[in-house]
Design a protein that fits this description.
The chain is an alpha/beta fold and 542 residues long. The protein has 17 helices and 17 strands. It has 3 domains: 276 residues, Aldolase class I (TIM Barrel), CATH 3.20.20; 73 residues, no CATH class; 138 residues, Double Stranded RNA Binding Domain. The strands form 4 sheets. An 8-stranded parallel barrel has the order 1-2-3-4-5-6-7-8, surrounded by 10 helices. A 4-stranded mixed sheet has the order 11-12-13-17. It has a 3-stranded antiparallel sheet with strand order 14-15-16.
Length: 542
């Protein structure tokens, strides 16, 4: 692999600006600060923080970032446009706000498509070139590094190549360090990107970057094609966030550059933190974490088919293009009604149970999984329930840390008021019994609160467990009633997460089965031990 990253190649992240334009993302200043810290730790070279002066949030972000973040790897970048038509650059308040942001680097955007100049800016092609030259020179004159993004460049180059090249030359001659060619509408394909970047390099001599959108599903491929053609600056967003269908995915681009192109673009160890970073940023923006994304998705190295599993057992490289640990991910074996003996043995081994050589046990487990999945269970997304099933079959039911003797949920509705959910749960730990009564906003939350309190009496050292996700799906054509509810429940102890599954004709009963599994799994892995004897009691919480 090439030497450690230096200024000869730029990884430029625009999650905080362009990524924030994604539908469903609304970042607070604290969110932006948290993501900036994570990206700096990851090792990107540049972090575009937003457009200072355009809104109070971005202005506050730059003010706070200067004092609250000690950037170790990244340079913070302020984004803005060239001066307005007909206005002296020294008098443009937007340009003044860019300089006041206090960053060493400024990213300017300019029109490079002649139709956008005349129709959107409503100015002449000559004035647009003056706007580019004046603004770049003015910002450079204040000691800033300048990158200039040519908006709609590839479409503009197709319609009027000479004018698009004039914009690149003007920016380059005025002092722009990098001129970024933008596929703003996302309609380009890799062969076109490669050809245009090659032509522009030869015609202008400018250092080129690339910014691609994913409207054809080619943003990552287009970015790599631009690099192959000589671009040395790539603009991306975490998890591909961005308006419409998104931007080039930061994690896919850097992984491809490092692992497929043998180009070091991150500091040592950065790539191995990638999966965790992708999921952490998804949590901050409050979107579902990537499941099927290359490299970082939970399914990126998951194997379900029996033939695949048998081959992976011999050599994981037979069905994996890289070692998943290189990007901080891991291989997963999905056990379902498609599973064969190799699948169940590998999965059991991952869960810490050896079935090597025990064909009879493997066959029993496969049969039981298939029988349960006929009832509506799905274990490929519920590793915790699968582990409990394997342990019950191999070790017997005696390891359960508690038994639920009785539970009941009552939902009471009164005119003009909110529904009241009340649960009664009786648990047995050895010979000790607890009875708890709890109220909460939903039946599942009420049951969880009652179980948590009951187990807290029997296991004084138990860390508080929380349900963080609860998914319900109705399965038609299953069960005696013609349909069943399948519940996937994810729980955390604040450190790790695990998912369980429950199936029943009633949603609450299915939720209880998933909740029961979740607490059994949590206790088995917590190391908590039962405390002093607990007398049978009732604790009412109002």
């Amino acid at each position: 692999m090439n030497a450690v990253p230096d200024d000869s190649f730029h990884v430029f992240d625009t999650t905080l600006r362009d990524g924030a334009q994604s539908e469903g993302i609304n970042l607070t200043v604290n969110d932006k600060l948290a993501i900036a810290r994570l990206l700096d730790d990851f090792g990107v070279g540049f972090i575009e923080g937003g457009w200072p002066g355009a809104n109070p949030r971005d202005t506050e972000f730059f003010q706070r970032a200067r004092t609250e973040i000690d950037f170790r790897h990244a340079t913070l970048v302020a984004f803005g446009s060239t001066r307005r038509a007909g206005l002296r650059v020294e008098e443009d308040p937007q340009v003044a706000a860019l300089l006041a942001a206090g960053t060493d680097t400024v990213h300017l955007v300019a029109k490079s498509h002649d139709r956008h100049v005349t129709l959107a800016l409503r100015t002449s092609l000559e004035e647009n070139l003056r706007m580019v030259s004046d603004t770049v020179a003015h910002v450079r004159g204040h000691g800033k590094r300048v990158f200039l993004a040519c908006e709609h460049f590839f479409d503009g180059y197709a319609d009027n190549p000479e004018y698009a090249l004039d914009v690149v030359r003007t920016a380059h001659e005025a002092g722009a360090e990098v001129v970024v060619l933008c596929d703003t509408n996302g309609g380009m394909l890799p062969d076109r990107i490669h050809a245009v970047v090659s032509e522009v390099r030869g015609a202008t001599g400018a250092r080129l970057g690339v910014h691609t959108q994913d409207d054809t599903g080619c943003a990552v491929a287009n970015t790599l094609a631009a690099v192959d053609a000589g671009a040395t600056h790539v603009q991306c967003t975490a998890n591909g966030y961005g308006e419409r269908t998104g931007n080039a995915n930061l994690f896919q681009v850097v992984a491809a550059l490092e692992l497929k192109r043998d180009r070091r673009v991150l500091p040592e160890g950065g790539l191995a933190r990638m999966t965790r970073l992708a999921h952490r940023i998804a949590e901050i923006v409050d979107l579902a974490p990537p499941t099927h994304d290359p490299y970082v998705g939970t399914s990126a190295f998951a194997h379900k088919g029996g033939l695949h599993a048998a081959a992976v057992k011999v050599d994981p490289g037979l069905y994996q293009h890289i070692d998943p640990t290189l990007v901080g991910n891991g291989m997963r074996m999905l056990v379902s009604d498609m599973a064969g003996r190799a699948s169940i043995e590998l999965k059991a081994e991952q869960l810490g149970v050896s079935l090597a050589g025990d064909r009879e046990m493997s066959a029993r487990l496969i049969a039981r999984v298939k029988e349960r999945e006929l009832q509506g269970y799905a274990y490929e997304s519920a590793d915790a329930s699968l582990e409990l099933l394997i342990r019950e079959e191999t070790e017997g039911p005696g390891r359960r840390p508690f038994e639920a003797e009785y539970w009941r949920v009552v939902v009471e509705n009164r005119a003009g008021g909110r529904p009241v959910n009340e649960a009664i749960v009786e648990l047995r730990v050895g010979e000790r019994r607890t009875v708890t009564v709890a109220k909460a906003a939903s039946p599942v939350a009420t049951l969880q609160l009652a179980v948590q309190r009951g187990l807290g009496q029997a296991y004084p050292g138990l860390r508080e467990l929380r349900v963080v996700d609860h998914k319900v799906r109705t399965l038609d054509g299953v069960g005696s009633a013609g349909s069943v509810a399948r519940v996937l429940l994810t729980m955390t102890d604040g450190i790790k997460r695990w998912t369980t599954v429950g199936v029943a004709e009633d949603v609450v009963a299915a939720s209880w089965r998933a909740l029961d599994d979740a607490y059994v799994y949590g206790l088995l892995h917590s190391g908590a031990t039962a405390g002093v004897a607990v007398a049978k009691e009732a604790e009412a919480v109002h």
